[in-house]
Amino acid sequence: MNVLINRNLFLGVFILIFVFPMHTVFGFQNTEIDSLSYYNKLISNLNNETNLAKAYVFFDKMKTESIAEKDTSYVVYYTQKISMIQYSLGDYYGSENSAVVALSWLSHSDSEFAKTNKIGLYNRLGKIYNELLDYDLAIKYYNKSLKLATAQEHINIIENNRALIYIKQNKLELAEQEFVKIYNNSKQLTDTIQIYRVLDNLGFVQSKLNKPEGLENMLKALRLKLAINHSSSLYASYAHLFEYYKDRSDFKTARVYGKKAYVLAKQINSPSFIENALINLLSIESNPYINHYLTLTDSLKTAKLLQENKYSKAKYDYTETENQANENLLKREREKRWKLTYLSIGIFIALMSVFVFVFQRYKYKKEKQFEIYNTKTRISKKIHDEVANDIHSVLNKLQEQPHVTEDILDDLDGIYARTRDISKENNTLDVDSNFEELLNDLLLAYKSNRVNVIKQSAPEIDWNNMKTYKKVAIYRVIQELLVNMKKHSEASIVVLKFSKINKKIEIFYSDNGLGCKLKKGFGIHNTENRINTIKGTITFETEPGKGFKAKIVI
Question: Transmembrane residues, as ranges (predicted)?
């Protein structure tokens, strides 16, 4: 069922309702107010990814400072903003994690401030799980939000979100009952926008139940929206009317509303609306190949989303977060003691792994000699620059200080970590079993509290039919870019976008790091060689202070 939820509008309204006004809740200084005002304006347009990325950096910085000061109000406010940005960028797991972090700061408080923010955060989790197709969990969090909500305008918003889930679950009678109740409550509040929106949703559900008043209510809502020229909610009306006439095989009228939806989507510059409108228009074409393609694409997207659910790191209530945090702390302490005890053995094994890897690569196929030479040079340089000098320094300390001090143990711990990283970068890859999952694991390895790695996949790419050596090259180049990012760029956001145009696969990498003047150094030369080996191209774009971008075409 293609039910369009006016997500961006609901999100904006909800933030306005549930986030306290800045000047009444927080004691900001004038400069902070100016900055907050600026970045809040940046995220007013949830379709502008560039502005969202800038705002993310600001709010993440402010959150870190607030955590250091242990100011709950600041931490919760900034973390909610971060969760909203992540949700708008499609990073639902990141948004989920941020919402849980905010809840953990409110876990021991029953104040009005905590209650109000919990309402918004539970609603946010409901929206996240809706996007992740976990409808039962979404309803669970909507219900938790409703238990705390007392203001009728808040209740209307949450119940509307819950009713939209009922539609997706095909509980149409229950959805109709909910919308009738919300509609009557909205009229008492004279909430014009909410009245028109709910009337449209009510009419849509009634049309699915083949009730004659369904079309009448949708058309009435459309006329009212046109009268006030409310563009965002207008799109939902056009989409609902398109589906109504499509379901009744009146493709001529459906096409009229489909085109209106497409024109409006371009006017408000919403990529998700534009995509939805184009899919709708294509779905009523008589070409069986188009219909089969749309059905297959939708199935692949759904299957992919369900598959990625296993990467979720926050499938728990906020009360469980504290227990997990304590458990992780104990685990880190145990790991540290283990590493201090067996550090020498670990360094030896890691170094041997690197040299074994280099030796095996050296004996690999004759035509790969040039690539093998570069790999050996790179690893040797890393060992010399990052390990050998530090080992020499530790040996000097041991000669001067016969007793092992804490500083020496810390130095050895650092050597072990760098050696382990070098080993991990050059392990043998099994790219044929599940390359998509291998890429996801690589990106997760570089995602941290400081760096957010966002991946935009392309379901139409069939990795299984790609030759092994090409997948190895792609993996190593992406790994090289991420390593350079971690070492040099100080980036907080990394975006990797995969797409397929005709028969070519395009991979776009971008980060918001320091950037640099582009020089044909060893790292860039090595990535170019890898891509040239598989008859592809790679281009770079970077300037100091403007981040780093790379485009790979294969």
Answer: 340-359
